[in-house]
Amino acid sequence: MNHLADIPLWIALPVAFLVVAGSSLALLGTIGLLRLRLFYDRLHAPTLGTSWGIGAIVLGSMLLFSWLDSRPVLHEALIGIFVIVTTPATYLLLGRAALHRDRAKGSANLPNAAAEGADPPKETAEDTVPD
Amino acid sequence: MSEILLTLALLYAQITLGLAACIACLCVLRGPRAQDRVLGLDSLYVIAMLLFLVTGMRSGSLFFFEAALVIGALGFVTTVAMAKFLLRGEVIE
C-alpha cells in the first residue's frame, strides 16, 4: 500500500467518496434486480450501476491515477463513455425481446395492460415457468 | 490519514462489489425466465468490470484497466447476441 501513502487529503477525500458511492449504487442495483416483481421493473434496476455506479468509480480512478502518474490520465473515460453509450441499446433490445416473448405467449402482465389496467399486474404461475 | 481513508474506502468497495456479484449470480441461477437470466448476466459483467477498476486502484497498476475494457466490450456483445437470440431464435440471419 505504499503508493497510497503520499496522497494529499484533498485528493483522497473525493476519491474515497466517489468509490464508496459508486460501489453502493452498484449493490443497490443488484438488490433491486432481486427484489422487484415484474421483469419490466427489474430491467430498470441495474441501470443504477451502469450510469452513476460506473461513472463515479471511473472518475475516482481517473483522479487517483492522474495524481499518481502526475499527468492527466484520460483513457479511463473510455470505459465510462463506452458503457454509458451501449447500455441503453442493450436493455432496449432485451426489453423488446421480453415483450415479444410475452406477446407470443399471451401473457397477462404486458406493460400496456399495467398502464390501463384496473388490476395491478402480478406474475402468474405460468409466467414464472422456466423455459 | 489519507492512506487509511483510501484503504478503507477501497476495501469497502471491494466487499460491496463482491456481494453485488454474488446477488447477480443468484439472479442468474434463480431466473425464472430466460430474459431474467440474461439481465443478471449483464449486470454481473458490469460488476466484474467495476471490481477490476477498484482492484487496479488498490494495487496501483494501470493494467487492470485493459482487462476492464475487454470485459466491457465482451459484455455488450454477449448481451446483444443473447437478446437477439431471444427475439428471433437465431443470432445472425
Distance between the termini of chain A: 48 Å
First-to-last CA distance of chain B? 59 Å
Order of helices and strands of chain B: HHH
- Net shape of chain B: elongated
**Average pLDDT score of chain A:** 83
Derived from helix and strand composition plus strand pairing, the structural class of chain A reads: mainly alpha
Multimerization status? heterodimer
Stretches with pLDDT under 50, minimum 5 residues of chain B: none
Describe the biggest sheet of chain A?
none
How many DSSP helices of chain B? 3
Number of separate structural domains of chain A: 1
Radius of gyration of chain B: 16 Å
Pairing-aware structural class of the strands and helices of chain B?
Answer: mainly alpha
Would you give the CATH topology of chain B?
Answer: Helix Hairpins
Approximate strand percentage of chain B:
under 5%
Helical content of chain A stands at: 55-70%
Biggest protein-protein contact in the assembly: A-B, 63 and 53 residues
Q: Class of chain B in CATH? A: Mainly Alpha
Radius of gyration of chain A from CA coordinates: 20 Å
In short:
The complex is a heterodimer of chains A (131) and B (93). By secondary structure, chain A is an all-alpha fold.
Description:
- The complex is a heterodimer of chains A (131) and B (93).
- Chain A is an all-alpha fold and 131 residues long.
- Chain A has helices spanning 9-35, 39-42, 47-69, 77-105, 111-116.
- Chain A has one domain (8-116).
- Chain A has 5 helices and no strands.
- In chain A, helix 1 runs antiparallel to helix 3 (47-69) and helix 3 runs antiparallel to helix 4.
- Chain B is mostly helical and 93 residues long.
- Chain B has a single domain, classed as Orthogonal Bundle (Helix Hairpins), CATH 1.10.287.
- Chain B has helices at residues 2-30, 34-59, 63-88.
- Chain B has 3 helices and no strands.
- The interface between A and B is large, with 63 and 53 residues.
Primary descriptors:
heterodimer, A: 131 residues, 0% strand, elongated, B: 93 residues, 3 helices, 87% helix
